[in-house]
Amino acid sequence: MKHLLSLFLFSGLASITLAGEPHLKVSATFEPADAKPGQVVTLKIKAEMDPEWHTYPTVQQDKAAKDQVNKVLFDPNGPLVFVDKMIEPANPTIKEEPDLGIKAMHYYPGGGVWEKKVVISPNAPAGKLTTKFTFTVLTCDKNNCLPPKKVPLEVSLNVSGAPVPVDPKYKEDVAKALKK
């Protein structure tokens, strides 16, 4: 009887997990992975999930959908300067939710890739440079949303070579960051 109870409990837990999770996988990379001090690189955050699940942008255009978003929390200190707005995944699915007063809620079935421009500090030392940040992901299927999941991420790049001039469009942001 003890073995049957254990088997029943194990089977129940497995089916709850399979039925209630979007099999979320989140990763981050820098492109290019090798950079010079002062150079602009792109941080790419990729969220993958089963196709019947979806997630959201970091900003909804319709203010009534403002709570249906993912969030990214970057470390403002250190040799990386996060600049510009987050670039959302291309081609969102858009739907109306009249009961909630939402005319255009954007979402991404199966996940997406978010991009953020990053300037390597002109003072960054040569070698491996690692940053940690949190991507809070809201996932839903057609019936329910799960509580937002905070995913800690760590991503590295190699810094080498002589510093290059900072892109003029980011000079002010970099100067502010260097004063901290």
Q: What is the compact description of this entry?
A:
The chain has 180 residues and is α+β, with helices and mostly antiparallel strands. The chain contains two helices and eleven strands; from the N terminus they run αβββββββββββα.
Explain what the structure shows:
This protein has one domain: Immunoglobulins (Immunoglobulin-like). The N terminus is likely disordered. The strands form three sheets. Strands 1-3-9-6 form a four-stranded antiparallel β-sheet. The chain has a four-stranded mixed β-sheet with strand order 2-11-10-5, with no helix packed on it. A three-stranded antiparallel β-sheet has the order 4-8-7, with no helix packed on it. The N and C termini lie far apart (65 Å). The chain is built from two helices and eleven strands; from the N terminus they run αβββββββββββα. 16% of the residues lie in helices and 42% in strands. The longest helix has 19 residues. Strand 7 and strand 8 form a beta hairpin. The chain is an alpha+beta fold and 180 residues long. Keywords: Signal. This is Thiol:disulfide interchange protein DsbD N-terminal domain-containing protein. It comes from Telmatocola sphagniphila.
